[in-house]
Here is the input.
Amino acid sequence: MGYRILAIETSCDETAAAVVADRRVESNIIASQFVHQQWGGIVPELASRAHVEQIWSVVRIALDDAAATCDRLDAVACTTQPGLGGSLLVGANFAKGFALRYRLPCVPVHHLEGHLLSGFLAVPNLPLPAIVLVASGGHTLLCVLETTERYRVLGSTRDDAAGEAFDKTATLLGLAYPGGPAIECLARQGIPTVRFPRPLLDREGYEFSFSGLKTAVRRYLAEHPIENERQRADLAASVQEAIVDVLVRKTIRAATEYDVEAIVIAGGVAANARLQERMRAAATQIGASVIVPDREYVLDNAAMIGLVAHLKLELHGTDRYRRFDFVVDPTPWRMYRHGTAKNARYDAMVFSL
Here is the structure.
């Protein structure tokens, strides 16, 4: 059965709404919050206030773009975890109120499952199983997507995420927020002359760790102060290469071990051109293809939330989602926080929608 869903995403600093019908995106609206740039990072209180101010306007535009009226919707969906607590509450409470007003089911969605399944927004017939790398400002996760409703987590970051490493090292280099695009832009003008550490790269398993990179950059700058823009560009290229090297090599290792035909890169870091270039080159060597959703679907967006909600409704029907007692959970996703010890076997981490 097909469903027409209004989806809302407010996990961090993007206020987003989309209409998804029969797994197709009819509209996808994203309102970015530029207020954080002057602070060099996201200020949670400012983020939640901006969501309150923008959410109804964004929802109205999404409905108008899809030529959808409230009485022609089958369900509402919203992100409930993980993210900033206040931001999640704004979206979840709006979705609950909207659903109550129009007597609709309300589907809670895990933000990372949205990224995990976003490959279907690019390739509806995505070959499965597939390896999915989710790399964003708050998370770095490597999974095997076995079916549209079942996935296996191979590893996550122990500390800083890849996007967080970009942001923090960008601050050390005196670059503007957000750091990922700033480093990528500057790195195009330089070459990677410094060999920064690649933590856990040669260790068995698929865990990540990027906190040491920031420390290595700080120590390097203390010993080698930047004297000109060429040196700054070379350092940006060196940082980018270190992050990309870890992401590519671990992802390719997983793709080889699980013998998949497709690799999906999702999350905000997937927009990095150097990551895409190196991943495609490495994937060619093992006969795999690399799928990267359009930019509007790799950044935080509501279309991916609507897609997951549609799959959940197909699996479970609407009755399950007529109780609105679900709560938000801002806790970042880490292996050991989800019922598995740090040294436990990764292949035990199997989840279903």
Remarks:
- The domain at 4-115+297-332 is CATH 3.30.420.40 (Nucleotidyltransferase; domain 5).
- The longest helix spans residues 229-257.
- The first strand starts at residue 4 and ends at 9.
- The chain has a mean pLDDT of 92.
